[in-house]
Amino acid sequence: MSFNTFGRVFRFTTWGESHGPALGVVIDGCPPGIPLTEKDIQPFMDARRPGQSKYTTQRQEADQVRILSGVFANDEGVQVTTGTPIHLMIENTDQRSKDYSEIAKAYRPGHADYTYDAKYGIRDYRGGGRSSARETAARVAAGAVARAIIPEVKITAFVCEIGGDKIDRDAINLDEITQNPFFCPDSWAAKRWEQIVDGARKSGSSLGAVVECVADGVPAGWGAPIYAKLDSELASAMMTINATKGVEIGDGFEAARLTGEQNADAMTPDENGKPVYASNHAGGTAGGISTGQPVVCRVAFKPTSSILTPVDSITSDGDATQVRTKGRHDPCVGIRGTPVVEAMMALVLADQKLLHRAQTGGE
Amino acid sequence: MSFNTFGRVFRFTTWGESHGPALGVVIDGCPPGIPLTEKDIQPFMDARRPGQSKYTTQRQEADQVRILSGVFANDEGVQVTTGTPIHLMIENTDQRSKDYSEIAKAYRPGHADYTYDAKYGIRDYRGGGRSSARETAARVAAGAVARAIIPEVKITAFVCEIGGDKIDRDAINLDEITQNPFFCPDSWAAKRWEQIVDGARKSGSSLGAVVECVADGVPAGWGAPIYAKLDSELASAMMTINATKGVEIGDGFEAARLTGEQNADAMTPDENGKPVYASNHAGGTAGGISTGQPVVCRVAFKPTSSILTPVDSITSDGDATQVRTKGRHDPCVGIRGTPVVEAMMALVLADQKLLHRAQTGGE
Amino acid sequence: MSFNTFGRVFRFTTWGESHGPALGVVIDGCPPGIPLTEKDIQPFMDARRPGQSKYTTQRQEADQVRILSGVFANDEGVQVTTGTPIHLMIENTDQRSKDYSEIAKAYRPGHADYTYDAKYGIRDYRGGGRSSARETAARVAAGAVARAIIPEVKITAFVCEIGGDKIDRDAINLDEITQNPFFCPDSWAAKRWEQIVDGARKSGSSLGAVVECVADGVPAGWGAPIYAKLDSELASAMMTINATKGVEIGDGFEAARLTGEQNADAMTPDENGKPVYASNHAGGTAGGISTGQPVVCRVAFKPTSSILTPVDSITSDGDATQVRTKGRHDPCVGIRGTPVVEAMMALVLADQKLLHRAQTGGE
Amino acid sequence: MSFNTFGRVFRFTTWGESHGPALGVVIDGCPPGIPLTEKDIQPFMDARRPGQSKYTTQRQEADQVRILSGVFANDEGVQVTTGTPIHLMIENTDQRSKDYSEIAKAYRPGHADYTYDAKYGIRDYRGGGRSSARETAARVAAGAVARAIIPEVKITAFVCEIGGDKIDRDAINLDEITQNPFFCPDSWAAKRWEQIVDGARKSGSSLGAVVECVADGVPAGWGAPIYAKLDSELASAMMTINATKGVEIGDGFEAARLTGEQNADAMTPDENGKPVYASNHAGGTAGGISTGQPVVCRVAFKPTSSILTPVDSITSDGDATQVRTKGRHDPCVGIRGTPVVEAMMALVLADQKLLHRAQTGGE
């Protein structure tokens, strides 16, 4: 089966292949009356856009979003959402399909080439077709709309580790994130990564990364137990991003190494009797519902599978071959995954906000 | 919102609280003609059942499953599924509600007490009510049905780490898993864990754990890109289990520390032209679709939040208090999470098998 | 496929066969804090309950509902919903399975015997198994919960036609509905129907009926275009009831015979500028959204297929046979369908109210 | 809420307003390997296309469909579906927005103007915006894809009644349907309708219609009881079409006037032991599952609400006004509804076929 819709009440459906004429997303269930123009979306597209530094793929895409439905000028002449489906479309402009002619028959290891053929019996091999990370452009566009639904929440993602080299958590400065090509909040780490990533790029190798995402301002009460817990929706959302292999909430796997005492997030009441937490090991959720603390999520990206070193593989005819990928690829796909992680966080939270409102009337 | 249904085609819906009269699960979309009696389900219940060793909660539950619908004797007199909803019910027999009277008003840190109140304005505080791990009994029952749909798949979960102490992967012997109270495949580690877990139990502390689950025999082609990828469905499923904080597929976060060369799973053709893999860093998926290799998933469980050490907390009236939990709790909830992880793997795979069949006609 | 869940946000899932040990319904997404005891549900069960007059089946069922989850005493000691799944169970007490032994092999024309076998390859033939109208007991129970979510709405269903004999619309008196065994609002029609239905009963024949349902108090704005319009959700809901063959909103098929002028529902403003309608041909919806007028729906029930006259049929072995049904059946199944129609109206409206709130925040 | 997706496994999502730049549909879950080009879709678009006779709206739309994703050339060079989302887009070319300036503030009675405002607080008033029947162009495009999934089924819809004037059922000749502008299978009725419809057109009035749709070749076994019965899915699908007010399966409301004997569809075995039916009162379903007989459905369309006669109405400011519609409207919207009814039948059946295959493996 293919299943290209995400969300319960605030839902989006993406379509499009890497080298087709365009790709897009239909957003359904968006509240009406929210100001929305293409200018509100474009900055998020630009953050994800390829070809902006030598550390990411040199594919050049304008990634201009067009809003084709679901908005109208209100009485004040401001273009707002109408509550009907919002279709966002992005044309593919730089599709060098010839780059991919060699892989029409040979399966690139680590890519979805073999599995798409095994499942569907046919695939659009150009640039990975539907399995290309290019699909994430549609999510980033949808994420911009989702953010408008949750103005109370501030979402920030950054790369906290590349090739095993971690940031110094005491050196985190969120203002740094936009000052380097790695979405890195630690200026020293960013310096080191220049060398590490450039080395991988030059040698035709690739590196993995870990992206952390923090959502500040989520009120207590969002989440839909048992099978749409905030944690599980986030895990599901993040694991749909290309090249992801792991998701953690709060301390994640590290929590498995703590004792109950170490892991406890003690609470004391503030002047209104609301909890003030001494720590946030839990990452902002308990029982699948937000606690009022920042929601913290970490996502592991594997190294890009496209490398210059030949790897043993097979052809669609079942013969042995070797594959080395010569396309314009990211040496570290996790970097450009950062805006996508932010978008998925926004999309999950917007959906949960509306779900919560449906059942309880609360915000 | 509450959302208590999981699955796309093979769906299940659970109901019930820890200290209500009973709990259960309605399974919908199950293929007809599958032999199913209570005897087929009970062994899985017994594996999860509490009170079996000093390393788990001393709550005593018979956990007898009753099949209340969806089965009928076929022409040969064998009781089989009829394709209609299967309701499995388990009565709660050992509900010492008095144990929980103290926490009616005081929020246990790390538990869902505060968040359920924040969300719903009311909660059944007895034993955690709906947020209790007792709910997982219903999933284990459903998982037994799911297994019958995927006889080609063998699912094995085991604990690979408790309190930071890992098994020796070279010493893994799956036959060991049932020979110790920890679902541990490494007999030496099991010996060590006796001391570690008993120490935590005696001191009223608790420990985290990591559970690994392997599904052998999954054919290439299962998974529903982009938003119901095999990986994301597994991540979602696992993160709905109580106390989970992280999920990995294949090498998971470790993959983020490898180079593209190290992470590559080289393929060579077998005599039928099907791929033979040199390694399984990917954990059996590519592009969200199974590769034909074993599907490998790891789940992080935090230490049980119920500990004897007092922790600062607040009351439902917003006053400061301290909470120490005196109930009959698991010193390491990850242990009993193991059969639940197995069940969720089975439930996801059964759903994906039917979804795949719907779209492609293939198995 | 089987698909036993209805609703988008306020969802219910039914299970159980006619002659199994019990049947029930799991309600998910119910708002918390709503007073709910078995006493609130039972009157609706009693209205649907068989065996109350000679005009309906003589099967005797106590139809006692038990609430097994999802409620708890609030601070004032009132039992209220907690927002978690509500499981309602009804035991089957009068199951004369022997009555059905003859039809184990012979397909009753007009019943689902043949189609269930064609679809599933097996069926619980006792009393129709899953296809029995007994399943509607679960809906009526769920409907009682739905009503509590929409206290602003008053739902009334009545039989407006039996065997082609219609009520006099000028003689409608809603107080009459509970005064006769036909849910008939016209006392003269009720008198006539005594003879008509009794005649059918005595001769072993059966009659069709039309049930009308009116929901007063639905505010303007409920409905989820385009594919969950209020009209389409109602049509879907009503057509899931056993023996239904048609659904109309407002003037329905009669509207197809009117001109645009005749069919127009003129509006004038009230003192608040809200519309006052001159007529309600539309039945309370426009564009799939409620207009603020009463929502009016009519449902056609075919005559019960179980009749004493032998009808040509086939056996499960493919041989010719004749079937006459000797069980305890309703001569006019539409009568007991009336409370079910009411329940489905309530279930659709409750769902739409919550959906509307999710997107717009409005009630 | 807005809900713009239909289907369970074979799902489609429409977007677009009447006077926006374009409209479209994303089809998800389509089986791979099905030949599909724009040429396969266009004939169905042309059948629905406006401006083809004086009996329908004079809006001129090319209704050229573009396939923007989900297809690729197979090894033989034939363009086939790939199993990924298929996006079909249709540009709006003849949007005379000025026609609608008057209704920006005045609510047209019978239209969704008031209800969209009541629900969303804003609407695209140009041509009805999202509530325009123009949305059905997207469905007809999707329906063409659905037909390719069910080649065993032949779907034929026709108008059986306009303004209360019915066809002679003995005179039905399906070859006639394409020979007149009314999709009328009775050449004499078509003659009469010329006068009737032209009269309504000239006087600025409008007429209702009834459309009948027959699906031949549906095997026994399709349908998903209890809440996605074939009947209820059809009723839901048909009632989402603009201007529909009623749906019948088989004899529909007429069945409510028959006795059990009259309504019985007797069966005798054919040489393979399969049933041969003496009649088809049931319209091809029993218990919500197809019987193997033709599936028969009838849909009531109200008269177009846009008429030249002034009707009392209100403005968005709550003032009294009168509305007469001068746009280019259909005097009988049911005529152009005919291809839409066919499309919805195809879309429901394709979904049910895949659902059936998911659970049972059968076709």
From TrEMBL, chains A, B, C, D:
Its EC number is 4.2.3.5. This reaction introduces a second double bond into the aromatic ring system. Keywords: Amino-acid biosynthesis, Aromatic amino acid biosynthesis, FAD, Flavoprotein, FMN, Lyase, NADP. GO terms for cellular component: cytosol. Reduced FMN (FMNH(2)). This is Chorismate synthase. Its cofactor is FMNH2. It comes from Erythrobacter longus. It comes from the Bacteria. Homotetramer. Pfam families: Chorismate_synt. GO terms for molecular function: chorismate synthase activity; FMN binding.
